[in-house]
Amino acid sequence: MSDLKRISSRDNSFFKSLLKLSSSTRERSETGQTLLDGTHLLRAFLDAGGKPVHLLINESAVQNPEIKNLLSECHAFPRTQLDDALFAQLSELKTPNGLLTLVDIPQPSALPAQTQFILLLEDIQDPGNLGSILRSAAAAGCDAVFLSAGCADAWSPKVLRAAMGGHFALNTHENSDLIAVTREFGGKILAASLQAERSLYASNLRGKLGFAIGNEGAGLSNELQDVVQERFIIPMLGKVESLNAAAATAVCLFEAVRQRA
Question: How far apart are CA 16 and CA 173, in angstroms?
C-alpha cells in the first residue's frame, strides 16, 4: 500500500471535515456524504453497486484479513491511515474495528408505477428504532420508505449501524410530505390504532400496500390518520399498552410478507 497517506494531527483539514461529518446532521446534508463504520456496512454498500469516496483505517486494520481483502477490492479508491486516537474520535464504537468509509449518500429515485409495497414513517426520532425499522423494511422487500421531516437523520452513524446495511436495499426518501405520498401512491395505506376493531391478521395485506408508522410517543398525527384508508389493531395478550415502534413495524411488515407469499 505505497499510496497510503497518513494523518497524525487533529489540525489536519481533512480530519476536521470528517469529524464534522461524523457528528453533524447539517454537515451530512450539506455535503451529501456520510461515514460507514466497519466492514459489514462497506460490504453491503459495495454489493449494492456503491463506489467509496475514501477509505480510512487505523494502524491495526492492515493486520485484519477481512479489511485487507476489502482494501484490495477497493484498490482504485483513495485510502488514508489515521492515528488510533484520531480514528477513535470518528467511530462511535467502543472498540473500533479499524475501517471507516466516506461515501456519497445515495439519492432516491422516482417511484415507478409498479411500486407495490411502501412504508411511511412520521417523526420516528430514536436512531435505534429508525435503523431497526429500515432493516426490517429491507428484509421484508419494501420498495421504498418515506420519512417525514421530523424523523431522525437516516444517514447518521447510529441509524446506519442499527440498519445493518438495509439502507442500500431501499429507496429512502427523507423530508417527505407523507400526506401527499399517501394521496399519490394509488394503493391502500394502513395504520395501527388502539381504537381500531379490525385485527391486523384479519386485514387484507395483498396488492398495492403501504403502512404508516407514527412517533414513538404520540403515534400518528390526526392529519395523517384522516387520509389513511384503513386502521387495524395488533392483538396483544399480555398486559402492556403498546409495542415499541420498531417491533410493531416488524410485526406488520412480516404479516404482509406472509399474506403476499
Answer: 29
CATH number, position 206: 3.40.1280.10
Query: Which domain does 9 fall in, by range?
Result: 5-104
Q: What is the mean pLDDT of residues 8-29?
A: 96
C-alpha cell read off for 193: 390504532
pLDDT of residue 1: 45
- CA nearest neighbour of 187 among 259, 122, 113: 113
Instruction: Show the cell assigned to 146.
Output: 418515506
Report the predicted TM-score, pTM, of the whole model to 2 decimal places.
0.93
The whole-angstrom separation of Cα 258 and Cα 249 is 14
**Does 60 reside within a domain?**
yes
Residue 110 lies in a domain: no
Q: How far apart are CA 245 and CA 215, in angstroms?
A: 8
Q: Is residue 29 part of a domain?
A: yes
* % of the chain beyond a pLDDT of 70: 99
Query: What would the grid cell of residue 18 be?
Result: 470528517
